[in-house]
Amino acid sequence: MELDTLSLTNFRQFYGDQELSFASGGDQNVTVVHGSNGSGKTTLLNAFTWLFYETITLPKPDHVASERALAEVAPGENVTVRGELTFYHEDNRHTFSREWTVERDSGPELSGTRVDEDLTFKFVDESGNTKTRSNPSSAIEEIMPERLREIFFFDGETIDKMVANDQTQIQDAIRNIMGLRILDRAERHLGHVRREFDDEVQKYGSKELGEIVERKNELEDEIQAKKDEKQNLIESRTEAQSELDNVRDTLSSRQESRELEERRNSLEDDLDDVENDIDQINDEIKELIAGEGYLPFAMPTIEATAEMLNEKRKKGEIPNEIKTAFVEDLLANDECICGRPLPDGSEPRDNVAQWQEQSGSSELEEMAMKITGRLTELADSQEAFYEKLDDYMERRAAKSERKTELEEKIDEVSTRLKDIEGEDIQQLETRREELSDDIESYTRQIGAVEGKIEELESELNDTNRKREKAREENEKSDQANRRSQAAEYVATQVDQLYDRFQDEVRQSVNDRVNDIYQDIMAKDYFIEVSEEYTLKFKQRVKGNPDQEVAVSTGERQVASLSFIAALVSLARERYESDEDLVYFTGGIYPMVMDSPFGSLDPEYQQNVSQMAPNMAEQVIVMLTDSQWTDEVAGEMGPKAGEEYELVYHDPSEEDGTDFEYTQIKPVVGEF
Amino acid sequence: MSSTEMPDHLDEETVQRILQRVLEAEKTRLHMGNPRGVNQEIESIIRDEVE
Q1: What is the per-residue pLDDT across A540-588, written as a single tens digit (0 to 9) for each?
Q2: Cα–Cα distance for residue pair A522/A530, rounded to 1 Å
Q3: What is residue A319's predicted lDDT score, i.e. its pLDDT?
Q4: Backbone angles phi, psi at A118, to 5 degrees
Q5: A182, A485, A488 ranked by CB distance to B26: nearest
Q6: What are the φ/ψ torsions at residue A270 (nearest 5 degrees)?
Q7: How many Å lie between the alpha carbon of B39 and the closest alpha carbon of chain A?
Q8: Is the Cβ of B36 closer than 8 Å to some Cβ of chain A?
Q9: Does pLDDT of A525 surpass 90?
Q10: Is the pLDDT of residue A268 over 50?
Q11: Which among B15, B24, B30 is the nearest to A489, CB-wise?
Q12: Fewest C-beta atoms under 10 Å: which of A196, A586, A619, B28?
């Protein structure tokens, strides 16, 4: 998407008809809009979101019509509010417009009610013909999805929250911007189609196969429901954790509670360590028992066997002078060792056969020798086993005692916090307890749901195996079965493709984010996009694993900005690449930034200004006059193909108007 | 056979062909919030490719 012009009529404080053109491409791809505080920069950002999604994030969001325009008509008469954006998308020029007819309300307050609206989306095709999309809301949603609104229309004041805990937004951004949505949909639709074929299997097939297929579908539905439940629980837990972190930060920042909160943090760190130690010991005990736990159970049997062998030795049965194998050989050869024949039924043969009862098994003798030798070894091993076990138990008991001590101390801190005078500290502490309990509860519930999912998946695997074994004589049912399997298998391939590309993209984003972040911040931190799609800040420590570090709001803002810029640049590269991948087409996206500097120091503001023009094909920046400093203007000015000033008219300071309004004035550039 | 093993009656070439046709069908409807007809088209692709 390449923005061309934005026209506004009577939108909020933009009275009358106003227009901006956007710079794009080449060396001057930046559009700068600057004005004093309150002049309408954020309102201008909201003009985009109102136009695309009918969303306004300002106070009084239903007050869309300009007050000055409303004041110029009588109650019951109408004012037109309009926004129109022209842009290029996939080489076609598009025009998207939203128009409201607002009737002025009667009554003392100057307000209006929407009585009519019109939404149109036109484009000029390759032949130069103008066509109209009959699904404007859906069509714009595909080009600029609303859930990515905060990515494309960047509010510098709040964007740091993206890298706090919101992995959903990051994952969504990657999926949508990098064109993976096709794969997502394909998998879903293949699932629907598979069910259609399953219905055919049931319709034409035997009762047995029909029941198997029905059970398979039920299990899949149950699994999906459980996965949705798990996801909801995880989100609830994340929210609770986020609120808990805020409560704890507040307790740490308040003078009355700081010391106690810090003490608690320290105790909880110690408690974590102790619990980890206990887990470690438990693992070691399990390993010990798995490897040597047989000893206490086997020893009585081994000892009884040794006793039995000893008896045989005392009786002279071991070692025995006559071996069983020797006697058997004589009988088989029908000849005694002295040469006398031993025919069947003869007395000499009977005499030799009797020796078998007295003879000893050579295997028995060998085993007896081994057991005797091992017995001492096993007795020593058993002793060592008990010693080790006792040691582990002792250590675990000590750790458990320490754990109890720490838990009591933490509880003591909580009680003391509640005793602090000042209702808000008490409320905070009570809220902290509630949130901690909630988080524990969510964790337990998640565990239970995961267990259930595992159980259901195991049953599903069994059901799938039964289905494979079932043979159908009915050709129609068999054919439907084959088609159902094909749909299922292709869906699995789509899923694997999705995971593979998502992971490749995550790695590419990771590298690109760091390139941009390092250019701006020049610190030795780096950003890691984890597998869970959270952005973590880390520092390399020689000889040790990388360590996570705490960062400031400003650093988080730069990280968010770097992340968005990384996605936009990767999507552009993919779009321009020669590789013809149906599902991974990327795209061209602008960056529209309101107050991109947020909480940054002047040095970093300059760095961001230097980097900004390179972040996207088209960059629109909205700044306060105080941010449009010589340094910032020095970096961004030469790249600004268009510059505008928002001129705010204050009714208290000007004659001729009772209402505030803003004019968009082009600045003829000094650059 | 689990769903990650290729069914005996399919071969790699057929699977890739189905995959590409399905993705093309999805791509033509990417601009739609609710892509009408895509399920029918995918069903038709599979009927065509799998006897």
Answers
A1: 888 777 877 777 878 888 888 888 888 888 888 887 776 666 666 667 8
A2: 22
A3: 61
A4: -145, 135
A5: A182
A6: -65, -40
A7: 6
A8: no
A9: no
A10: yes
A11: B15
A12: B28
Name the residue with tokens 């980097």.
A611
Q: B37: which chain A residues are within 8 Å (Cβ-Cβ)?
A: none
Whether omega before A319 lies within 30 degrees of 0, making that bond cis, reads yes
Q: What angle do CA A207, A211, A212 make, to 5 degrees?
A: 120
pLDDT in tens, A117-148: 999 999 998 888 999 988 898 888 878 877 77
| C-beta atoms of B3 and A193 within 8 A | no
Measured between CA atoms, the residue of chain A closest to residue B50 is: A483
Distance CA A395, CA A385 (A): 15
Q: Token match 């794969």: residue?
A: A183
> Order of strands across the sheet with A153-155?
A153-155, A591-594, A619-624, A30-35, A640-649, A661-666
Which chain A residue has its CA at the smallest distance from B38's CA?
A: A189
Residue whose tokens read 């079932």: A470
Q: Which of A127, A128, A125, A100 minimizes the C-alpha distance to A114?
A: A100
Q: Please, what's the largest Cα pairwise distance for chain A?
A: 145
Q: Closest by alpha carbon to A101, among A111, A115, A112?
A: A115
Tokens of A633: 């203007």
Min CA distance, A461 vs chain B (Å)?
7
Report yes or no: A456 and A222 within 8 Å, Cβ to Cβ. Answer: yes
CB–CB contact A186 B30 (8 Å):
no
Residue A492 touches chain B, beta carbons under 8 Å: yes
Tell me if A535 sits within 8 A of A171, measured CB to CB: no
Nearest CA in chain B to A458: B2
Selection from A19, A69, A68, A24 nearest residue A44 by Cα? A19
The verdict on a CB contact (< 8 Å) between A196 and B49 is no
Locate A180 and state its tokens: 């993976």
Asked if A181 lies within 8 A of B39 by C-beta distance, the reply is no
- Hey, is the C-beta of B42 within 8 angstroms of any chain A C-beta? yes
**Percent of chain A at pLDDT above 70?**
92
Return the residue in B19, B47, B51 with the most chain A beta carbons within 10 A, the one to mutate for interface testing: B19
pLDDT in tens, A308-362: 877 877 776 666 555 677 788 888 888 887 778 889 888 888 888 877 766 666 6
Rounded CA-CA distance A161/A63 in Å is 27
Count of alpha carbons within 13 angstroms of residue A389, beta-carbon side: 16
Distance between CA A616 and CA A572 in Å, rounded?
8
Of all residues in chain A, the one with the smallest CA distance to B13 is A490
Enumerate the residues of chain B whose CB falls inside 8 A of the CB of residue A482: 7, 9, 50-51
Q: How far is B9 from chain A (nearest CA, A)?
A: 7
pTM above threshold 0.90: no
- Is B50 at the interface with chain A, CB within 8 A? yes
Cα nearest neighbour of B9 on chain A: A482
Residue entry with tokens 């009680």: A415
Beta strands in A137-247 (DSSP E): 153-155
What is the distance in angstroms between the Cα of B16 and the nearest Cα belonging to chain A? 8
DSSP letter at A105 equals P
Determine the Cα–Cα distance for residues A563 and A211; give it in Å rounded to an integer: 50
Contact B23 A485 (CB under 8 A): no
Closest residue by Cα to residue A90 from A184, A179, A180, A187: A179
For A469-500, the DSSP string reads H---S-HHHHHHHHHHHHHHHHHHHHHHHHHH
**Measured CA distances, A270 to A254, A265, A314, A366, A549 (Å):** 23, 9, 63, 57, 19
| Residues of chain A contacting residue B42, judged by C-beta atoms under 8 Å apart | 189-190, 193, 487
